[in-house]
Amino acid sequence: MTDAVRILTVDRLECGLVHYDWPFARDSANEIAEHWARQTKLNPALFDGAVLLANGARTRMDARDQRVLELDFSRCDFHSS
Questions:
Q1: SS3 per-residue string spanning the chain
Q2: Is the model's pLDDT at 74 over the cut of 90?
Q3: Whether the Cβ atoms of residue 65 and residue 9 lie closer than 8 Å to each other
C-alpha cells in the first residue's frame, strides 16, 4: 500500500467482482470474531453487511478497470487490541 493519493478523472469505470481468499481474514478469523463481538456489544446497531474492496486497478486512456472483492464488514474493521 502506498501513502500517495491520486485523483483521476475518467470517462468510465469498469468493475468486476472477483473471488479472493484473503489470507489475513482466514488466518485471523478467531480474533476478528472476538473483536466483532466486542464491537457489537458496544454498539448493537452495527450490521455485518457486504463491503466491496478494490483489489487491483488499471487505468487506460478513457477508463479505469477495477477488480473488487466482497467481504463482510467485520473483516474490514479489524483492529487487534
A1: CCCCCCCCCCCEEEEEECCCCCHHHHHCHHHHHHHHHHHHHHCCCCCCCEEEEEEEEEECCCEEEEEEEEEEHHHHCCCCC
A2: no
A3: no
Residue 67, classified by CB atoms within 10 Å of its CB into exposed (0-12), middle (13-18) or buried (19+), is middle
Every domain of the chain and the residues it spans: 12-76
Cα distances from 4 to residues 60, 76, 77, in angstroms, run 20, 21, 22
Say if residues 53 and 69 touch (Cβ distance below 8 Å).
Answer: yes
Grid coordinates given for 12: 468510465
pLDDT 10s digits, 18-70: 888 888 888 999 999 999 999 999 999 999 999 888 777 777 767 777 888 88
| Statement: the pTM of the whole predicted model exceeds 0.90 | no
- Give the phi and the psi of residue 20 in degrees, each rounded to 5: -145, 125
